[in-house]
Amino acid sequence: MTNKHRGSCLCGEVKYELSGDFQSFFLCHCTRCQKDTGSAHAANLFAKANTLTWLQGENDVRTYQHLNSMHAKSFCQKCGSALPTIAESIDSVVVPAGSLDTPISMKPTAKIFVSRCANWTKNLDNVPNYEELPEQVKS
Known about the structure:
Blueprint: E1 4-8, E2 15-19, E3 24-28, H1 31-37, E4 42-48, E5 52-56, E6 61-65, E7 72-76, E8 82-83, E9 85-87, E10 92-96, E11 110-112, H2 135-138
Parallel strand pairs: 3-11
Antiparallel strand pairs: 1-2, 2-5, 3-4, 4-10, 6-7, 7-8, 9-10
Organism: Photobacterium rosenbergii
InterPro entries: CENP-V/GFA, Mss4-like_sf
Protein name: GFA family protein
């Protein structure tokens, strides 16, 4: 039986499905991934390129290819959510983990480009955790 993974964008206009298994799951700390996620790192799964099927909204998907690099990002033109990108040079589809609607059992394979990681992401063990938005932000 083939594994099926489904995902979508934030506004729900774009939906996709992947058939098969993921080969790797990287947390990328390069500066390009920091810029295109607006966060400390990207969380991307890699699968063979022929496994992606757009179920809805394919015409709303746009792709930005960074000049002179392999770095590309696909996103919904309506809400800006990150979506899978076909990476022809490595015969893979790069899937933003947060775009998946179905759970994945795979843990990250590795953190990559850690030499470029944002300094504010180090030593976070003592940062408080909250189940929801903290009260001081709500008031």
